[in-house]
Amino acid sequence: QVQLVESGGGLVQAGGTLRLSCAASGRTLSSYHMGWFRQAPGKERELVAAITSGGNTNYASSVKGRFTISRDNAKNTVYLQMNSLKPEDTAVYYCGARHQSIVYSIVPDDYGSWGQGTQVTVSS
Q: Within 10 A of 107 (CB to CB), how many other CB atoms are there?
């Protein structure tokens, strides 16, 4: 089982930037599809961005053009660069891992390994 630890969250003003990191241990990250998801109070966990083990990406329509997911397999880390942040981006952000032997998915329930989450708060 891969262990994941997110970092990089915080409080930022609207229009600001943050970069989240998800560091993996226990397994080689290159063998996993990875996703960033978020959950706001009272809402279900939703996809933000996902990247296959081969580097193909998907984005939620609400973040397309503002957020970028990337991976550095040598560092066993996945990143989420968030630009032009909006108050509606406020949520706890989680990274998830899904082994590449299983078909790629952007559905949160299909991810079996999760980090503890990092809070992102965007003030207006």
A: 12
Q: Is 106 helix (H, G, I), strand (E, B) or coil?
A: coil
CA dist 35 and 41 (Å) reads: 20
Residues forming beta bridges with residue 51, ordered by sequence position: 34, 57
Q: How many CB atoms lie within 10 A of CB 11?
A: 12
Distance CA 14, CA 7 (A): 20
Contact 121, 11 (CB under 8 A): yes
- Written as tens digits, the pLDDT of the chain (124 aa) is 899 999 999 999 999 999 999 999 988 899 999 999 999 999 999 999 999 999 999 999 999 999 999 999 999 999 999 999 999 999 999 999 999 888 888 889 899 889 999 999 999 9
- Residue listed under structure tokens 């990089």: 8
